[in-house]
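Hi, here's the filled form for the chain we discussed.

Project: internal
Contact: R.S.
Residues: 138
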Amino acid sequence: MIITSEWTDQDTRIICDGLIRHNRSHARPLDEQWSETINVILKTDDGQVAGGIMCNMFMYTLDIDVLWVDEKYRSQGYGARLIEEAERIAKGKGCIMVITSTFSYQAPRFYPKCGYETYAVLEGFPEGIKLYRFKKLL
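And the returned structure, exactly as it came back:
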């Protein structure tokens, strides 16, 4: 056996396919809705990107991976509208819950305003930074 950090795209596929096979063998019938991406973008009237949300659906749960709104457009409700649209799409595809995380210097006060509940706080990062985990039932 050899342990190495040299990695190929084929290695990635083999490992991910193996994990998916394992998960599916233990999570039926949840594999009926296994993995799909939901991305919603916010653009200005002239087509400039002003924000967006990137999510993955997995086992009837939407995981918000990235949410960003340009500073010029913050505090105008656009972040909440992006979340609402992603939730609407996910619910239409059968999702029953949304999860996400954010660091203390990002948006820990924003998600509760959108109906999210804190279910974990992880401390121990440098400079007192904390990681917050949120959930919301749809």
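Let me know if anything looks off before we file it.
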